[in-house]
Specification:
The protein is of the alpha/beta class. It folds into two domains: 2-167, Alpha/beta knot, CATH 3.40.1280.10; 175-214. It is built from seven helices and nine strands. The chain has helices spanning 10-17, 20-27, 64-75, 96-102, 121-126, 146-157, 205-214; strands at 2-6, 32-36, 50-51, 61-62, 82-93, 107-111, 132-136, 186-189, 192-195. It has a five-stranded parallel sheet. Helix 1 runs parallel beside helix 6.
Amino acid sequence: MKFHLVTLFQEACDAYLSASIIGRARKEKKIEVKYQNPRDFVENKWGKVDERPYGGGPGMVMQATPVVKATERALKGKKGKRVILWFSPSGKQFTNKDADTLAKYDDVVLVCGRYEGIDERAKKILKTSAPVKEFAVGEAVYTGGEVPALAIIDAITRRLPGVLGKDASVEERRIASRAVYTRPETISYKKKNYRVPKVLQTGHHANIDAWREENR
């Protein structure tokens, strides 16, 4: 599976995507991550990708053409199932179900905006190249689209066969509690003892599942 990030800040993304489970998935060729920088597709000598917004207002807006060209380069020659992801605080909230759906694609292009956003015409043009899905990741507004993009790549990658070792490691596919415990059985801290719930030590799977269901 290939992820293509259209971003001005590859270094911000690659640090996370090269570490831990995601980094191992890349090394084992379970996923591939590629980058396209809109600055490489501008038509001015300064590498300028932003302009003032029509209608006035603070901040700058990313130009449509460099974003479109960067995205089209990412999709060039791709014939499998592909999709373009666009990020907006007003988009559909991203869910585990969306991650399961996207895990079936061959190429996922994640367009990371900056500043006040991307000229809306870019999205309209790109819809002629591949389906565009618009998502929000949480209710907060971020500095750029890189944080939502990383969250989505993480959520999709961990669902791919073999990435977590066992399918049962995907918490949302089993009964999992928001509260988890490990050794030691008792932690003494500032004259107080904090113990693991007794039910988790019984080995009684039905009771443990019932406790986990209650604490989901």
